[in-house]
Amino acid sequence: MLTHLLRLALLTLSLLLPSQIARAQDAAVDIPAQIAAMGEASLKELTQIVVELASTGDNGVVPVLTALADGNLYLDEASGRVVIQNGSTITDPLTGEAVDLGAEADLSRIRVNNGLRRDISAALSGMTLMSDNPATRLAAAQGFLSKPDAANLPLLDEAIAAETDANVRGAMQAARAVTILTSEDASIEDKNAAVPQVVAGAGRNAITILTGALADAPDEVKPTIEAAIAGLEQGRAVWGALQNVWFGVSLGSVLLLAAIGLAITFGVMGVINMAHGEMVMLGAYTTFLVQLVIRQNFPGLLDYSLLIALPVAFLVTGAIGVGIERGIIRWLYGRPLETLLATWGLSLILQQTVRSIFGPTNQMVIAPTWMSGSTDFFGLAITYNRFWIVIFALIVFFMLLLILNRTPLGLQMRAVTQNRRMASAMGIRTPFVDAMTFGLGSGIAGLAGVALTQIDNISPNLGQNYIIDSFMVVVFGGVGNLWGTFVGALTLGVANKFLEPYAGAVLGKILILVLIILFIQRRPRGLFALKGRAIEQ
Amino acid sequence: MNFTRAKSALLAAALAGSISLPMVPAMAQEDTIKVGILHSLSGTMAISETTLKDTMLFLIEQQNAKGGVLGKQLEPVVVDIASDWPLAAELARQLIEVDDVDVVFGCWTSVCRKSVLPVFEELNSLLFYPVQYEGEESQRNVFYTGASPNQQAIPAVDYLAEEEGVERWVLAGTDYVYPQTTNKILEQYLLDKGVAKEDIMINYTPFGHSDWQTIVSDIKAFGSEGKKTAVVSTINGDANVPFYRELGNQGIKAEDIPVVAFSVGEEELSGFDTTPLVGHLAAWNYFMSVDTPENEAFIADWQKFIGSDTRVTNDPMEAHMIGFNLWVKAVEAAGSTEADAVIDSIVGLETPNLTGGVAKMLPNHHITKPVLIGEIQDDGQFFVVWETEDLVPGDAWSDYLPESKMLEADWTAPINCGNYNTETKTCGGAAQ
């Protein structure tokens, strides 16, 4: 994320460099003095300097303002110079040339607050509207959109006429429409004509802008705005319901990931494994370690660290799972209460071990760029991290189905579960199959851990938050049935998300628990009950 | 039922047995003053409280290097309450009765404080509580060195209303006593200021909540009504990371909808990438980035003690430092570590805080503090954008709630009461 920002800043810088050097000379008297004053300025003085710099209309001040807003502008306490620092390169804010500050350099960042950042982005909009880079122009148009000023109208008109990118032009037209709508001089007709342009171009902010404009609008324009808002609200209600379904699916996919390993160990093998959550936690810590190694040795691969962590986490937690099965659980088959206690103790031991090694504080896994941010899919706001987790959960689920139904190991697993003695008589090494099954379940928990690094804390307690939910999903879906887990997780996710807006997060969760209790009363074997004699034993 | 009880008793015994052994056995019994440290070193709260235990060991080591107190060395007695509040009460009793400590520094959550209160009252010992809390309490044996709502929540709301022009408010919190009470006070305060009822949205989530999609999109919708909106967050520790991450992913920027948090400090931020958080706010009485010589020295000493130059300092650590120094001064003034003598001598004592001001122990057992508003930077530090001109005295009973505005706490003669009713002139809380 940080590197991404830096890269963007660098890009802007390099694009503007030629024009900047040329023009810096024109106003050389004023600008350097102002920039030098930035070092020791208070917030109020900084605001004043930003306004003055922007009023020069000189493109040469764009890098210094961008750097200030991004937090890349520094004061060298030793020499009193103001410089831009990007990563390890230090440049002069005006010339863009590299600066060598020597060994005594003591850089301290020139800090800004929200208000100043807003001012800078408004000031920059005016200067970067004609930039060569479409992304910069789009940002400039959006800047105008959030801070409309009638004085900018001629500039916008000029930019719209010259614009070639349809997307950017849309944003500029919306900005122009908003400016007209909020300006006092514009005619009624112009204002009425501006309303649909705002609706078309301002995206999700349209309602905010129109509601804001409504209060000051002349009476003749009010009906148009109200109608437009009503139309938008209606659209939002429909999309709101769909959005809820998406939230539900995304919550369901997280539940599915956490529960699916348990569906193997608890559902197929019948082992009540209270340490399942800790397998998830270990998967997350493995991801953290993998990313640490990659960051130190192969920074170029950072964006793919999660993909690299997947097999590693699977193998690590799978191996630990096999170890647990061989070391503890195999001595306790047929004694569910003891298994429960032993695995619960194990979960405490694992938690405290991790806490002793890594400390009690959260660890950080940086989100890869392809998992940050969100996109608008018609009226839906879909965040990338959730989107990829849904896809990932589906892949894991179908891979697991494939393994259980189409591989020799899966066949043996099912045989051992259905009739251990018969399977043994047929020559299947049941202890080996037990270990592999438990290892598979644990490995999948580790995979869930990799995904959870993107939405939750990586702390020793990570697993605790999911263990109850996981058992709930498996029991609700029907013990021993993968499809049951699948449907169970999605049902719980969607139901939770539909209750939440009405009942609140706390009451929603309680209601879900009550509903599950009632459901289990009526169907003790869950949604998809296994049938047959094996169950009766 | 029997089974679970036996299990928890067993567990408690095991924990108490294994962990509560004094960590520094050292010197002969009669030559030392024992200081109890009552924090969670395991369980959910370990993330915040482990550092406070280290802070106390650090302060005690420093004091011992200066010659101790009353010519005696201080001896820390560390127990682990394991984020288990009934256990906290048992361990508090053990500290006072078995280990014979003279003072206890401890607790983080309000529920921990409420659990151990009766023990300190019954055994007449001293507790210094270092964390910002919901107020509506003043107890003779407890000294509240963290902020009360008028030292944190109210100034933060004032800042947003005046400096950022906020008109619509989302009060989001974790579902327990501190956020509930704070939000009750804030809601009343906002209503009194003339904010309309429909411009306030209150939302509670369970501990450790991780799926913020619906709530964040609700906040976004609530903020799209044309008025400047802000979120006042009393969301507790662990749930904050997914909350901020969802805010960032759904594209809510601090410039549009700022979030001001009361429970997010340097320690909490050290666990993640703060780039998406830049510009969001926190209100505290101390930030690590405060530029004073006292603070610089404190940070340098702390990092040397802990052996790492990346360890951060935070507000509750400063509170422990202030509480500890006030206690040392009170003991020296009283010439004794007896609880009653210390309670009498500590009121009115002053000690410098780390932000260039003075912390004074008030008769209501709260202290004076400056209020700072900081913006989160991408290095996990806070940049102070606003601070109160004067020190703000802590108020035990909120002036904005009708049921507590006539109450005052004063533990000096002649009142000597934690909930003195200024209308009826009696001790004993609100007239029913």
In short:
Chain A: This is Urea ABC transporter permease. The complex is a heterodimer of chains A (537) and B (432). Chain A is mostly helical and 537 residues long.
Give the overall silhouette of chain B.
Answer: globular
Spans of chain A of 5+ residues with little confidence (pLDDT < 50)? 13-29
Number of domains of chain A: 3
Helical residues, percent of chain A: 55-70%
The overall strand count of chain B is 19
**What is the correct CATH architecture of the largest domain in chain A?**
Orthogonal Bundle
| Helix and strand composition category of chain A | mainly alpha
**Beta-strand segment tally of chain A:** 6
Question: CATH topology of the largest domain in chain B, what is it called?
Answer: Rossmann fold
Q: What is the N-to-C succession of helices and strands of chain A?
A: HHHHEEEEHHHHHHHHHHEEHHHHHHH
The CATH topology of the largest domain in chain A is given as ABC transporter involved in vitamin B12 uptake, BtuC
Q: Evaluate the radius of gyration of chain B.
A: 22 Å
Strand content of chain A: under 5%
Keywords (chain A): Amino-acid transport, Cell membrane, Membrane, Signal, Transmembrane, Transmembrane helix, Transport
GO biological process, one term (chain A): amino acid transport
Signal peptide (chain A): 1-24
Subcellular location (chain A): Cell membrane
Explain how this protein is built.
The complex is a heterodimer of chains A (537) and B (432). Chain A has helices at residues 2-24, 31-38, 43-55, 62-70, 114-128, 134-146, 153-162, 166-182, 188-201, 206-216, 222-268, 276-297, 305-327, 336-358, 384-406, 408-418, 420-425, 430-452, 464-477, 482-522, 533-536; strands spanning 73-76, 81-86, 89-91, 107-109, 374-377, 380-383. Chain A is mainly α and 537 residues long. Chain A folds into three domains: 2-123, no CATH class; 136-220, no CATH class; 244-536, Orthogonal Bundle (ABC transporter involved in vitamin B12 uptake, BtuC). In chain A, the strands form two sheets. Chain A has a four-stranded antiparallel sheet. In chain A, helix 11 (222-268) packs parallel to helix 15. The longest helix of chain A has 47 residues, at 222-268. The relative contact order of chain A is 0.08. With 432 residues, chain B is an alpha/beta fold. Chain B folds into two domains: 2-148 and 299-369, Rossmann fold; 150-290 and 372-393, Response regulator (Rossmann fold). Chain B has twelve helices and 19 strands. Chain B has helices at residues 2-19, 46-65, 85-97, 110-123, 153-163, 177-192, 213-222, 240-249, 266-269, 293-306, 315-334, 339-346; strands spanning 32-39, 73-80, 103-106, 127-129, 142-144, 168-174, 200-205, 229-234, 259-261, 281-284, 350-352, 358-360, 368-369, 372-376, 382-387, 392-393, 407-410, 417-421, 426-427. In chain B, strands 7-6-8-9-10-14-15 form a seven-stranded mixed sheet, with helices on both faces. Chain B has a five-stranded parallel sheet with strand order 2-1-3-4-5, with helices on both faces. In chain B, strands 17-18-19 form a three-stranded antiparallel sheet, with no helix packed on it. In chain B, helix 11 crosses helix 12 (339-346). Chain B is globular. Chain B starts with a helix and ends in a 5-residue tail after the last strand. The chains are: A mainly alpha (537), B alpha/beta (432). Chains A and B meet through helix 5, helix 10, helix 11, helix 14 and helix 15 of A and helix 2, strand 7, helix 7 and helix 8 of B.
